[in-house]
């Protein structure tokens, strides 16, 4: 087939197909590149074309306590979410894949449902529950809310890994005399580790970038970075926002590379 | 199939997740539904009574804004879904049929990278592109194509553009999985029997990918009707969606009970979509099992 394709001197249909897809990729990536341009452009307001390169907006971002406090809070929450969702999601995926549970597909759909139901409603429902319980809006409440919407990613990546590896490896270990506990710790756990970690990294990003779930659950002076950025953007669009965006884009990009190394991005394609 | 057997001890590992989901997901949604039938907060206000007035307020809609908001939400969701499908399909097809592993990995990264960038950041990116002094308008004015900036933002158009950018990766990922599972030889057979490339695609690949189209569309629709950040930043005063209305009720009107009622309406719409989506997904994985 490839040979036949190469014989034709110019394939207009294929050229159009590739051009179209090139344009679509540009549509996906250009906005992110443009943010970088504005983050480095020294003019006080967003303006195009850029006139130069400077780091003044990064300086402003890192010198404004409003931003840095929010950045640290977001990183701290995301770190907690990472640990919690690894433990809870990893365990849950193991139970789903190996627990012989009745109604497995229903349970899986149930644990994935926070991703499909409106996140703003998850925030609203938790806000009202905390209100009813009279506990205010504690940081741990926000962490649990983020964990809820992050756990599905860990479950998904771990299930993908569990799905791919040969169950006979575990059976072989058992046949050779390993106790179930030993099989679990020495065979199953090391095998699913990349899936669990990849999910954890994803959970970190989901929490770090989380907006709709946080909206009703943050307190004034205790807002996470996306909420601070959102409120700032309503009134002011300057390079500081671009710089802040750049910080989170760089974080995301490094995560993509880590994920690709850990388990390959393909695990995210399968639902 | 396997004979039904008893759950193994490993099943206990489900307990933490189950606890998390009951306490912070099922119960809160129950609370939200309950609060939507109360006049106030029954924990702090002993005069709070049961009422259906929040729902009456939505149904009778004397101010004429709630129904409009519902329609705007559904309309924006529908347009976003259709455009995402038109944009997502070629990309998904390209990715699914790509021979080179490196090329595949690179395109996949390009699709996933925007997903990993926060919604607030991506909306900001579109604001810098579409606003009056943004990239597009500056270029158009400088080149003399238009005399004054086009209204690309603070309306439904800008909202849809940014929403498509945010949700198209979900469409691509869903479709890629489905198209990848279609045997390429079917299309080749159609072509060797004399069908042109376009006809082979329209009559073989496209119908076979229909479940993926449906699943991806439902997913994007469910996500875009619940969007809050993008419509409130890109929509200006032109756009009012259900999630924006909910945030207003909590933030400025401080009427969480009415917000709850609006939430229940949005939840019901979403639940219908999620159930349909899961049906299709279950059927897809069933077919995969038989193949």
Q: Could you please describe the fold and organization of this structure?
A:
By secondary structure, chain A is mostly helical. Chain A is built from 11 helices and no strands. In chain A, helix 7 crosses helix 9. The longest helix of chain A has 34 residues. The radius of gyration of chain A is 23 Å and the shape is globular. The N terminus of chain A is likely disordered. Chain B is mainly α and 291 residues long. Chain B contains 13 helices and no strands. In chain B, 47% of the residues are buried. At the A-B interface, helix 2, helix 4, helix 5, helix 6 and helix 7 of A face helix 1, helix 3, helix 4, helix 5 and helix 6 of B. Chain A: One of its GO terms (biological process) is transmembrane transport. Chain A: Belongs to the binding-protein-dependent transport system permease family. Chain A: This is ABC transporter permease.
* Beta-strand percentage range of chain B: under 5%
Shape of chain B: globular
Q: For the residues shown, what is the average pLDDT of chain B?
A: 88
- Computed CA radius of gyration of chain A, to the nearest angstrom: 23 Å
- Percentage of β-strand residues of chain A: under 5%
Report the count of strand segments of chain A.
0
Write down the Rg of chain B.
24 Å
Q: Kindly provide the name of the CATH class of chain B.
A: Mainly Alpha
| CATH architectural type of the largest domain in chain A | Orthogonal Bundle
Question: Remind me, CATH topology of chain B?
Answer: MetI-like fold
Q: Identify the CATH homologous superfamily of chain B.
A: MetI-like
* Quaternary structure classification: heterodimer
Q: Roughly what percent helix of chain A?
A: over 70%
């Amino acid at each position: 087939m490839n040979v036949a394709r190469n014989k034709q001197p110019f394939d207009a249909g294929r050229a159009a197909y590739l051009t179209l897809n090139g344009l679509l990729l540009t549509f996906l990536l250009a906005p992110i590149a443009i943010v970088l341009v504005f983050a480095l452009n020294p003019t006080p307001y967003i303006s195009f074309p850029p006139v130069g390169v400077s780091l003044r907006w990064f300086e402003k971002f890192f010198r404004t306590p409003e931003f840095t406090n929010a950045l640290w809070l977001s990183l701290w929450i995301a770190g907690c979410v990472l640990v919690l969702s690894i433990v809870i999601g990893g365990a849950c995926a193991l139970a789903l894949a190996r627990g012989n549970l009745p109604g497995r597909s229903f349970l899986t759909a149930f644990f994935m449902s926070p991703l499909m139901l409106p996140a703003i409603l998850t925030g609203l429902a938790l806000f009202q529950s905390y209100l009813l319980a009279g506990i205010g809006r504690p940081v741990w409440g926000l962490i649990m809310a983020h964990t809820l919407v992050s756990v599905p990613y860990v479950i998904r990546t771990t299930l993908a890994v569990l799905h791919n590896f040969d169950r006979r490896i575990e059976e072989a270990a058992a046949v050779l005399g390993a106790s179930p506990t030993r099989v679990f710790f020495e065979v199953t756990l090391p095998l699913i580790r990349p899936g669990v970690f990849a999910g954890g990294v994803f959970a970190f990003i989901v929490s770090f970038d989380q907006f709709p779930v946080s909206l009703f659950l943050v307190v004034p002076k205790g807002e996470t970075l996306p909420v601070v950025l959102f409120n700032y953007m309503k009134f002011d669009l300057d390079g500081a926002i671009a710089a802040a965006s750049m910080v989170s884009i760089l974080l995301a990009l490094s995560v993509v590379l880590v994920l690709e190394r850990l388990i390959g991005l393909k695990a995210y394609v399968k639902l | 199939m396997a004979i039904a057997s008893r759950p193994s001890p490993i099943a206990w590992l489900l307990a933490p997740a189950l606890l998390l989901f009951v306490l912070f997901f099922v119960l809160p949604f129950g609370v939200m539904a309950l609060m939507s039938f109360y006049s106030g907060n029954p924990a702090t206000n002993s005069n709070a009574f049961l009422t259906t007035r929040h729902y009456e307020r939505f149904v009778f809609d004397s101010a004429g804004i709630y129904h409009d908001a519902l329609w705007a939400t559904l309309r924006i969701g529908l347009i976003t879904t259709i455009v995402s499908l038109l944009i997502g399909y070629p990309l998904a097809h390209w990715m699914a049929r790509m021979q080179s592993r490196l090329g595949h990995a690179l395109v996949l990264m390009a699709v996933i990278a925007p997903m990993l960038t926060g919604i607030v950041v991506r909306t900001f990116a579109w604001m810098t592109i579409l606003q009056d002094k943004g990239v597009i308008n500056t270029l158009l004015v400088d080149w003399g194509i238009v005399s004054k900036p086009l209204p690309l933002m603070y309306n439904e158009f800008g909202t849809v553009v940014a929403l498509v950018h945010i949700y198209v990766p979900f469409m691509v990922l869903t479709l890629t999985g489905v198209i990848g599972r279609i045997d390429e030889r079917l299309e080749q057979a159609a072509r060797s029997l004399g069908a042109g490339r376009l006809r082979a695609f329209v009559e073989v690949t496209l119908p076979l990918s229909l479940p993926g189209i449906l699943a991806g569309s439902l997913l994007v629709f469910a996500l875009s009707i619940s969007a809050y950040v993008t419509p409130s930043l890109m929509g200006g005063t032109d756009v009012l969606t259900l999630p924006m209305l909910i945030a207003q009720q909590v933030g400025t009107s401080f009427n969480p009970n009415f917000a709850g009622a609006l939430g229940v309406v949005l939840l019901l719409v979403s639940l219908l979509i999620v159930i349909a989506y899961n049906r299709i997904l279950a059927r897809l994985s069933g077919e995969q099992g038989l193949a």
